[in-house]
Structures are given as C-alpha cells and as structure tokens.
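Review form for a predicted model. The reviewer records the input and the model, then writes brief findings.
Reviewer: anonymous (R2)
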Amino acid sequence: MTPKQPPAPDRATLREIYALNARLGLPRFLRGVDYVRCVELPLVFEALALAPGMRVLDVGCRDSIFPLYLAKKTGARVCVFDLDVTVAKQRRLAAKLGLTFGRGYHAVRGDVRSTPFATGTFDRVSLVSTIEHVPGEGDSAGVAELARVLKPGGRLVLTVPFGDSPRDFFMSEKVYSQEYAGKPVFFQRHYNEETLEHRLIGPSGLRVAGRSYFGEPRVAFFNTFWVLPGWLKPVKVFYNWLGPVFSRWFMGVFDDSSTLKLRHPPMVNANGAFLVLEKPGSTNGPAPRA
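Model under review:
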C-alpha cells in the first residue's frame, strides 16, 4: 500500500526564502537554496507556527538565510546559535536586510550540549540537519539541553538524515569547527526509527506532536547531479539556483518512510526524518501539521 502523502511544502514560503537570499548579493543568488533545504525549510517554518514577539532559538545554521527569514517574515525575536565560527557572518547579513543586530536578532557561538541560556527562555527551537553532527552521545545531551531552555508549551522542530539502520560517518579532513589531526573526525550519523526514539525523542522528554519523512522515492537526483566531486563542482553554478525546481520534481514528503530508498544510503543523501516535539504545559499557537 502506498503511504498517504502529506501536503507538499508551501512553495510560497520557499519563494520568499529564495528571494530574501537573493537580496544578499549575486554570489548568494547563484548559490541558491540547497536542494534538500528546499523541502526542509518550508516544513520547519510551518511547524514553528511563529507569532510576533516569540523568542526563537535557531541552532546550527552557520550563515543560513533561514533565521533571517524567520525574523523578517514573522517579527519573532531570533537567536542564532552555532559552534562554528561562520555564525559571526549573521551580523553582516542582518545589516544587509535591515535587521538591527542585538535588538530582536542575535548570534551566539556555543555548544548545543551546554548553552548559556536560562531555563524556559524560548518559545520555539529549530534544528535543520544539525543535531546529527554532534559526536558521541552529544545528540542526546543536545536535545535534553534544548528541551531545558524551551518554555512549557513550547515546540522543538528538527530534521535529521534517515536510513534503514543507524550509521556513524567520519572524515579524514577538517569538519566544521573540528580540526583534523591524523585521526578521523566525526561528521554525522543516520537515524532509523529506533534511534530516533532512544537518541532524540526519549532524552528530550518532549511529546511527539508530528512526524513525517522526506526524500526521493524514485529518481536519485541528489546523489547523481547535486553532490558532485570537487573537480565538477564549478558546473553547478549553472543550475544551483534551480534547487526549488528540482526538489519539486524529485522530492516528496510522506507519513511513512516505506516509500523511500533507505537501504544503506550514502553518507550524504536526500532522505530525512522531520520531528515536531512539544514541551508539556500551556500551548502557543495552532497545532503543527503531523
């Protein structure tokens, strides 16, 4: 039986994100919005259900357009949080878009396993393909810490890579803020249903309010045409900006993961799980789409 497919991500939201990114200059326009992010970002935005004045923590975005979009679109007070030094670029990007840095828009460098924020600070927390990059048991510690800084009734929305079995991947080069010193550096992990539960959902102590899956049910466009070897990457300048078109053709969002090709996917692939977790207490805003 073919699983019921949820509504496609809001393309109007994606067009707005893309247009805002293009305002940051020609290089950003040519870079476009990543193929997989074209599905992830609208899904996460919709589930956050933001209102003006809400406090939002966006984790692991580096120099992404997404937290800037959250602030510009909704009037929410956004704090960008990342261990990588590139998070400092958010100050310059905010200035280009007319956001006052330090007044409703902040960037803080730090470790998700131990943040500087007080308990119950944020109405919403978002992690777009982030927590899978924390080594060891850091993903479990990270979601527990983010649940701590979430207000009662608040919502944590995240995406992670998904496959048929849990797998950890290492690289023999620098990975984000981790230097390579002759020993393989942890890059990311894939989750399956079991590890979603015992590594993320269980340690968070939060309630599952929504769960779905995204990826390529038929044509493996991502690993054939999007992830290219280094010598071919310059070719992508001709079609990077078409990420939204390609994702619409080849990607889908499903209530069940059985439609996706999940058996031993490569380290970087288009399959993912989408979770909406809520903290017990008074509710804020409409219920998210499951």
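Findings: The radius of gyration is 18 Å.
Further findings: The CA atoms of residues 128 and 167 lie 19 Å apart.
Recommendation: see findings above.
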